[in-house]
Design goal:
By secondary structure, this protein is an alpha/beta fold. Helix content is about 20%, strand content about 25%. The strands form two sheets. It has a four-stranded mixed β-sheet. Strands 5-8-7-6 form a four-stranded mixed β-sheet, with helices on one face.
Length: about 160
Amino acid sequence: MSDQNAPNPTPDLSPDSAPALRPEGVLEAALYAPDLDAAEAFYGGVLNLEKITRINDRHVFYRVSDTVLLIFNPNRTVEGSSNPDLPVPPHGSEGQGHVCFRATAAQLSAWVERLTAAGHPVEADFHWPNGARSIYVRDPAGNSVEFAEPRLWFPDA
């Protein structure tokens, strides 16, 4: 027998009933790489990203414009934090992830040259139906790293 006067444990958050609330953007994105030295050589060296911090063999973080790219060692993040002042819950992923960096058409050609010269051959280079170009490479952990023109998702870009 159910109590019809009991409060609904799941509030109605459908777009019609909820106020217009949505995230403002992506603050950080995460990839996983068990060899942080190789990840650092790729993201900090080849891609020339600004390193924020590295904590031993647990993680290395990079600034990418107004976003942060987190590279975690998946073997360490499943343990969770051992610091009571930073109670981040355990997390992680198995398998290859994906990240896409914004680049202009001219920059894409330069990235092809730079990545190839650094030993990271372009896996795919094509134009989408809307005319935007993307290139794909693999980082040392096998993650799919894409560089694409912003008009891929934003036609007025």
